[in-house]
Amino acid sequence: MIPVDMPLMLLGYMIYIFSEVFLWLFTAGLIAMLFPPSRRYMLARRWKFGFLMMFLAAGSLPYVESTLRLWQDWRAHHPRLKEQQVVGDLVLPAGTKVHLQYLEPFDDLAGEPVPYGLQSLKHADFDRTLGTIKGLEVRSLELWDGSATVKTLAAHELEGWHCEPGQVVYEFPFGARFKHSQWRLDQCMLAPGTGLGGITWPGPVRVIANGAGWVARSDETPVTVQGIELREFIMILDRPYGEGDSWEGYSNHPFDFGPVYYPANTQVSRYHGQLLFSLPLDTQAQDRRSGLQIEGGNTVVQSLESQVLGVRPSRRAGDPFPDEIVVP
Description:
The chain is of the alpha+beta class. The chain is built from 3 helices and 28 strands. β4 and β5 form a beta hairpin.
């Protein structure tokens, strides 16, 4: 562990704070000179105010010097390339503004060298000349550990999806930051009105890789399924534009499904060809056939044709679905 001299650190911090205060006072003195009444008052006591301004100017130097160093350091980490640079499969045209995480070589705690310079690239803005990544013309690139986000300018067919212009996220294995052949699509947006799983999604749809399959979700616009308006709607697909047999969402309004009346905020899911209606804890549903109340915390199982198959305790958040829905 690197030793820390706390008293020295505290002293440096106090000098920095006082230096900033001195700079503000010095600036206030200069502004006061612009007004005739205060200027006459200060000129009548020129020696006194002259020494005071010199003292404030000298006291401001540590803050000014520190701010200048920070600005120079920021400039060094955010240069604009004067000529084209190539890093692996990534071509950075002249004029690209880049954000470099490290400027000098050093080793990590395990003694391994840490990438620096362009190898430590975090962000690239292609604001003068568009970049090309995996055949896509892009305006920007953001690199993380194991993933990359690009901003595209046109729609593209990507791994079976018709992705809209905007942010596209790729995932890559360790050591493949600049090996585009190993990048795999992780997320993109589909256009409003896209048909998935037999449902027309009225708003934009985000698709996310999920193991061997995909998750489609609508976070902004409710989706109407089985006559129920659902928000936070997600669907599981085994392939791009696949069947989508499993989905879930939360009802925006109270609704009837078959003989049962459900409150708003009911979680509605489709699983194994059945519909599951999970009631919030502080609510009730009503079976209109018998007038019986179904307490919150329970899940009503119904067929796709609305037949009531049973009632069981709701699974807790994070629990997997059972392999089979057991209907009492």
